[in-house]
């Protein structure tokens, strides 16, 4: 095998995916993988007991961290594999080398190869980052983290969406992950959505469809299964489905012209898996049950009307959106009866498997219905080549994950996404290199990376930079001291990391923060506000003169925002959302890079 940047990965991906043709022959049709027949699948399926079949469609969650072999965590993991005989896992956070080593060890314990899925919405680094060593906040590195999907929406560039998918697949497969729970295909047409937000490409269904299909093709051309989520659409909600049941009361006509547009395109584009929505849509099912538990939504609409042939994966089965109405056991039985093929992240693994079996014995569905899901899972394992090669090469990992050329793509997306929504006083780019600059970071205290890369990039060009950190947990936020500091500065920059969709229960900044921004404006300080979290922040501070959206708080976006502010890179992004009533979709003030 020849070791080259990227080239070795393509060879690994094609070797592992038996559906992959010779180079240049076109895209493997992964949407038809679960329906295909194979001798290996037939043989394995025939050998399984009813409970072992049920276990194949139950996938617990596990961290990709280090645990000792005699720890309760490892013994529980071994029990899932060797006693319960589950068919796969959802992988959570860990460092690349530890994650890959752990997945190899898990594969070695299992007689039937395991399938590993993970939320890779922002690349393999969304789960496989080394984290930060405390108390020094040393970045321990990891796989590439891309900006959120909405940043890609701000670029409107399908080529970049494809590249993001391609590199996610190459790095993810090198770690031993087979299925990306991505892309998010929800149309984020509700600014109050606390759980989707920047995870979506935007509010334009057609743009979301084009970028989503490009991302899917990038993943599946390179050996990883894509999962469009959350069908039939989680965008028009103001309730977090982790905490309660959202209800979307749009008409069927509106759903057809908005929410279903990206999913229809994804199915037509060959997406291999779809994840369900733990929310109700009365226009599709008047019983008001969550889509995950609705035969009308999954079997009637997704399988029947849209013609989807791939694997239907539930959203996490420990979320209140499905538990509150029926409880864990009944929710499992209803999900399988509705058409779910894989149940991820149950509250109790053994109880979940037993519930699947009980559903057969109670006549809720037939064993043949269960067999159809198990066949899809086993066929996917076969077509991914896991029956022949289920371990990844740890010696090659360092040359596949976190490669500098991969990082360049992430930087290109981040720089092209930076969007200037308002600049009424022409404050950007900053040309006064000798000016006294105050940079204030507003974030959760636990957000160790907030402001680090941004301020480090600014400091290279602005020697008179003073930084302040404000924790959102502080009730008073000590704003009087910050106002005094702003009075002695020439330029005040305020960076908000509030409302990052993957770690916030609310998208709104504290009222004290809005009062602080208003006080700065009234004192003539003309603050520059940057949204690294919720891009709809402008609704809370409409009087702000300069408003820049960076879409996410990962270091790559922080650096891109700083370079844009300094005029090192141009500003070209356009809003893929509207911020009513202050900015319409497509808004974006362009700024050329400064000549040096």
Q: Bin the helical content.
A: 25-40%
Strand-pairing-aware structural class: alpha/beta
Span between termini: 44 Å
Integer-rounded radius of gyration: 24 Å
Question: Can you tell me the CATH topology of the largest domain?
Answer: TIM Barrel
Compute the average pLDDT. Answer: 91
Which segments are poorly predicted (pLDDT under 50) over 5 or more consecutive residues? 1-29, 31-35
Main sheet specs = 7 strands, parallel
Number of domains: 2
Tell me the total number of β-strands. 17
Q: Approximately what portion of the residues adopt beta-strand conformation?
A: 5-15%
Q: What sort of overall outline do the alpha carbons produce when their principal axes are compared?
A: globular
Q: Write the CATH homologous superfamily of the largest domain.
A: Glycoside hydrolase, family 3, N-terminal domain
CATH architecture of the largest domain: Alpha-Beta Barrel
Strand order of the largest sheet: 2-3-4-7-8-9-10
Can you tell me the CATH class of the largest domain?
Answer: Alpha Beta
* Annotation field: number of helices: 20
